[in-house]
Design goal:
It contains 6 helices and no strands. With 108 residues, the protein is mainly alpha-helical. It has one domain. The longest helix is centred in the middle third of the chain and has 17 residues. The chain is elongated and about 45 Å long.
Length: 108
């Protein structure tokens, strides 16, 4: 389907919006560019560093990088251990809140 409507770098969300409502599709990179303004206002510098890391993975590999099951591996890839990340964020719950909290900006 992505190939047919020339939207290979778009999310399923965009495909469905295109099919159901004839809305213009957006690439993941376009979504990130639009979302960054709100993200940078809402989150601290350390959080934004982590979010930017995740967003780069999202642009490269797709929406599956935003799944809750990917959070641990992304944290470990960026910070080596959960403990190291918690030292940056203050707690594991703050890591989780950051990981989930920024995602709404992608689909506003």
């Amino acid at each position: 389907m992505k190939t047919i409507i020339d939207a290979k770098d778009s999310d399923v969300y965009d495909l469905l919006a295109y099919v159901a409502y004839a809305r213009e599709t957006h690439t993941r990179k376009e979504r990130v560019t639009t979302a960054k303004k709100g993200i940078h206002k809402e989150f601290t510098y350390k959080q934004v560093e982590f979010i930017d890391f995740i967003l780069e993975k999202y642009i490269e590999d797709g929406v599956q990088e935003l799944a809750a099951k990917k959070m641990r591996s992304l944290v470990e890839l960026k910070y080596n251990t959960i403990s190291d990340a918690a030292a940056e964020f203050g707690s594991p719950m703050a890591i989780r809140d950051t990981f989930i909290g920024f995602q709404k900006y992608l689909y506003e």
